[in-house]
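Q: Predict the assembly, please.
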Amino acid sequence: MVNSILIIAFLLLFAFLMPLLALLHKRLPAVVALLLPAFNLYVGVTHFLKMEFIPLIIKTGGFRPPFGINLAIDHFSLFFLILVNVVALFIAFSYLLEEQDYKFHMLFLLNLLGASGIILTGDLFNSFVFLEIFAISAYALAASKREKHALEGAVKYLVVGSIGSSFYLLGVFLLYKVTGSLNMAFIASSLQGEKSGIVYLAGMFMLFGLFVETELFPLNTWAPDVYQGAYNRIAAQFSSIISKAAIYLMFRIVFFLFDDPLFYKLLIVMGIITFVIAEFNALVQKDLKRMLGYSSIGQMGLSVLAFALYGITSHPEAFFTALLLVVNHAISKAMIFTNLENMPEYVQVDTGKANPFSSLMFTVGALSVMGFPFTLGFWAKIEVLGILLRSNILWLFFLILILFMVEAFYYFRVISNLMRSEVVSVKLNPLLTISLVVFALFLLYQGFYPVQTFIWTNKALNAFLNKAIYISTIAGGL
Amino acid sequence: MNIESLIFYGVPIYLIFMGVLVVLTTKNLFKMLLGLSLMNSGINVLIVALGYVRGGTTPIFSEYPKIYEKVVDPVPPALVLTAIVIGLAFLGLGLSIVIRIKEKYGTVNVEKLKELKW
Amino acid sequence: MIRKFLYFVILLAFSFFIYAVISAYFPFGENTLTGVAKYYVDNGVKDLGGINIITSIVTVYRGFDTLGEVTVLFLSVTALAFTLLGFKVERRTLPNPTLIMETGGRYLAPLIMLLGAYIFLHGHLTPGGGFPGGVIIATAFLLLFVTQKVYKLRKIHLTVTEALAGSLYVIVGLVGLYYVRSFLGNFLQTGKPGYIVSAGIIPIIYLLIGFKVGSELTAVLKNLKEGGDEH
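A: Predicted assembly structure:
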């Protein structure tokens, strides 16, 4: 198996070389931006299929953890790595022929680097550094359209994001002071058992930082503006790569490092509030992209809520559900946002012109997001309701059910408008068409027969739950 | 609450607090960036202050092979080095976005940036 | 007005709380080195040969973080250039330099660059290292921008330096991967501590970082002074 540090090394090397590559040939940056996610995907999938259920440790700097930084690779990280790179490949492929300054491709690759770094690392300060790479490239990509709306969204994002990142750093450092190490496995083993008050403060600071990136209330006010103002492919990147890598980090920190009822309860409350506010806001939107942005925020709230249900129900199925929601949302939203390229005349929610292909693609994506039967989303949403029923939290069950119906309502409103709208012919980008069809077929196929997704998700879940093996592999013997 | 911790902890925390206050209360985007910078400085100083060992000297053994008895914790300065550069990066990018906003909107007053509503 | 006061009060309460918690748990100066810090101090010189422990941590023990940090800076510079694409600076915003400024600047700039180079070359022996060294070099260029009536610095030179320095850093890491089976591992002799040719790859890394940071910040200054590229 290829050494997975090469994922990071190659992304870095080619990002640094990009100015020189652009001098060689104008199209080269776009091609490199396509090849690297493909490489990462190859490494990720081979590891996923061949690895044992023991975390793989990759040292850097020549020293074993905790004296050196290490990457810690288990099926849970690989799950997210594969997801993020599939979407990146999808985006890079669809937009291969688009004219863009080489710096844009650099930003795209560096964002992917940040996401992959967060997912693969086993060291907490290293996660901060990659989080910064990830965040700064996100700010730049949000502003990339360089138009009024894009800039407005980007600057709001930047201000909230910087404060969040600074607090994340402070939280990481406080954990270092308490435990004497920056390595995730060592910190996790030190934090088992009775926790002193400062640990809670550190955790709060870190979560504060992550709330921004995962678009949770109350730090998500930037998100609708960014979704509305940015390029379509950037909006797809936000909903499917950026928020997913951030939610990975949140899952890791809350379960792996802390595993404390306080944080679970906090996430449940915030998740519910986020979901409620986002869905009702989506209902009253006039602009299609803004509505989709609120829908993304809502899904993030729902995913976090599903994850945190573990804290009060102690069902590991809660994690399983969260992972399903994450996969479903990443793929469907990537489809919907990139498909907007095919419907440039449909900008408002209730009027516009479109063509049959784009309407079909939008419909498939939307059905999966809302959880309509025979799409992948159905399985994810049903699981959430199932857990709530089994744990007898009936008020939440009904609340979530109502919100699911709200979501269905505003999506169906668009779908029915699309059916009735005036047909306009659009020159379809062939690469984008192929990618959309592939994703649509995936969502429908897994909707009918979700076995493959379930198997992979289960592997990720088992790796995640097995804290003991992770800790003993890295910190064992001390 | 002795005078030492008041200076070495209190001042950075005050800087952080001032930075956040500036970001929350000012209407000028440029001043917001300065507030962020202030906050970053506060956090960096706080981190270094938390690494102090009383009676310790810098972890640079310039008279090697003579090893010093007590040295200050070397990890916080290493982390802060990284954090300073990252703070600089934020500022740079933020400035370029604000410059562009000034160009497109004609102002850096936050109140005027209300194009995107609800 | 009332909102500002409210924010002030809430933040004040919050910072008192944080201050109280921190000074309760970590009294100032009451530290003994434990965990990784103790290992670094005890074994830093033996492992790597550099007498500046902080430098050893930054370049080798936690070298991966430094690579990330270099990337962040690179990212920020690229993003700045990208955001300012097509942005024109209308009028010269700096005052016209006088004769004293011009001559003085021309004499000072090389000395400043020399200072910067000294700092990053001695990173493993004295405080400082690649980052301050690079910043000082960029300051020298800033001096030239401000004091010279006309100072032409071709963007292509900066871009190439930046790209090469960064790629070489990754390549050093990959060489380490090949020889020592660990990315960014030390594969050179540690040498005699205290000498300039010692400490394995630390001087090399700091050299690369010095060049990279210097050229990057100069590029930022150039972008801010003259506007972005043509789109």
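Chain A has a mean pLDDT of 88. Strands of chain A lie at 56-59, 70-73, 353-354, 422-423.
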